[in-house]
Amino acid sequence: MSDTDQQTPERRRRVKDLLTLHLPLVIVVAFCAFATVIEFQRAQEGVSRAWVYTFQWPIIGLFAVVVWNRYRKHGNLTRWFTDRIRARIAAMEPEETADEARAEKPIDPDEAAWRDYVDDLRRREEHPRESPDPRP
Asked: Full-prediction pTM beyond 0.85?
């Protein structure tokens, strides 16, 4: 394998970055600079609304630079965000459910009797004819 074969994937990546990242950034920033100059000239001519656009276009240009930097550092934004969320989820320990916490805690005999009583009451409310009449 020659050196050119090993550099080909790297060169392809650089060409792809040039066409998909750097060139669009240059075009957007150039357009924003051009629009800023035009709006500043309009504002100098007395169009008061143009002052808003004079400040809007540089902000749009800065936003484009922020998005470009994010793509340059992390590649696909969705993949970066998904990987970050998955890492945070994997770091979390599963919380105990109420049944597991109850199973680990020793049950007091009085509490067990109370739970049995409450379960019996619930059964009686659900099926009133099946429960025996407590009166003699």
From this structure: no
